[in-house]
Amino acid sequence: MTKEEFKDIAPIDDADFDAKMQSLVKEPGFEHAVRYMMPTTDYDKLKADMLSVHNKEEFQLKIMYPFLEMLASRFTDGVTSNGISNIKGVGTFITNHRDIVLDASFLNLCLIRAKIPTSEIAIGNNLLIYEWIEDLVKLNKSFIVKRNLEMRQALEAAKQLSAYIHYCITEKNQSVWIAQREGRSKDSSDHTQESLIKMMALAGEGDMLQNVMEVKLMPTAISYEYDPNDYLKAREFLLRSKDPDFKKSQRDDLFSMETGLVGNKGRVHFSIGECINPQLERLSDITDKNELVRAICAVIDNTIHAGFHIYPINYIAYDRLNGTEEFSQFYTDDDVKKVDEYVESQLAKVAKELPDPVSDEDYKFMIEKMWTMYANPLKNKLTVEAVHA
Asked: How far apart are the two ends of the chain, measured CA to CA in Å?
């Protein structure tokens, strides 16, 4: 494919940057979002600052970098990383998915701090509810993943997406970020979607394994101490248990994005793994394509699970869920009190939103889902450690 054939999904070309930026800062929806998110911001000054940058790199370094540092300082207890030395040139950061907006953004924050070029970001078009949101993310080095298409269109979109990722790695010399699955895992048990690996293998001149290896996968574990959307996920579990056909609305998606941005996340840690090509080379004897895809997914999952940073809430949740004190040496009485108060305050938000009172049975159901969400990262890490013991 040529550069023009990626135009509808690729980030804004720098040649078109100024025109798109001028349009964005005049957009009432964008101004409203800024004033809501950052009520003390001088919008006229921000507008002037945004108009003073003339390409995507300047935009990220001069506008987005301080914004992300502000988010990190206000809504986390620190964003840290390890494994930066594993980055040996461009590649594909493939991560578990916790926050719609901040997973890739905070990874790029870690890269900027280390003076490493940022990655382009894969984002589903289902989140681009307004045209100005699409303009904003494309100005910020995002490329579009087309969702909810008919089968024939979906195949063409997958081929285009695969070709674009390969083009980034092999010709643009540009790293990319993509989540290991479409949508976030509701129970925080993270596993790579097989269709994602099949998509990556559609482009390239080699066989399936060679094509996947061409994009240089670097599995990266994202560990949020607290998930601001945990109570929304518990609410969704509850509503779906009562109505199997329950579906979230567009408003729900917007509220999840907003909650993820400004909610308390506690400590946030990124563990960047090495490129897994040496491990994938050992799969070359697998001839069945479905078996090969499963094996590739397992390598990614194991690397991500092994990289999880475990917090007191994860240990407490695991013990609560299993009725044990197996990990009590990793938390204190104060930790338990803090976690109990946190979970209660989160679930209290559900009661305020539902039209009917939350019964004792409903509360018990939701608290078990909360413990499951926070126990699963530890459970998966323990599984990997047991295999390699």
From this structure: 46
Query: Are 34 and 180 within one domain?
Result: yes
Q: Which residues contact 387 (CB under 8 A, 6 or more apart)?
A: 302
Number of structural domains found in the chain: 2
Task: Report the pLDDT value the prediction gives residue 247, as an integer from 0 to 100.
Answer: 83
- CB count in 10 Å sphere of residue 331: 18
Give the tens place of pLDDT for each residue, 14-57. Answer: 999 999 999 999 999 999 988 887 888 899 999 999 999 999 99
Q: CA–CA distance from 43 to each of 19, 54, 136, 152, 262 (Å)? A: 19, 19, 16, 44, 19
pTM for the predicted model, two decimal places: 0.95
Instruction: Kindly state whether residues 273 and 338 are assigned to the same domain.
Output: no
| Structure-token match 């301080």, residue found | 66
User: For the residues of 228-276, what is the DSSP string, one character each?
Assistant: TTHHHHHHHHHHHHH-TT----HHHHHHHHHHHHHS----EEEEEPPP-
CB atoms within 10 A of CB 241: 13
Closest CA to 175 of 117, 248, 129: 117
168: closest CA among 386, 347, 9?
9
CA-CA-CA-CA torsion sign (113, 114, 115, 117):
negative
* 261 and 102 Cβ atoms separated by less than 8 Å: yes
Residue 140 Rama label (left phi>0; alpha psi -120 to 50; beta)? alpha
Query: Residue 46: phi, psi to the nearest 5?
Result: -60, -45
d(CA 201, CA 143): 18
Q: Please tell me whether residues 61 and 181 are part of one structural domain.
A: yes
Residue 303 near residue 364, CB atoms below 8 Å: no
**Three-class secondary structure of residue 143 per DSSP:** strand
Residue 123 φ then ψ, to 5°: -140, 135
- Which parts of the chain register pLDDT below 70? 1-2, 389
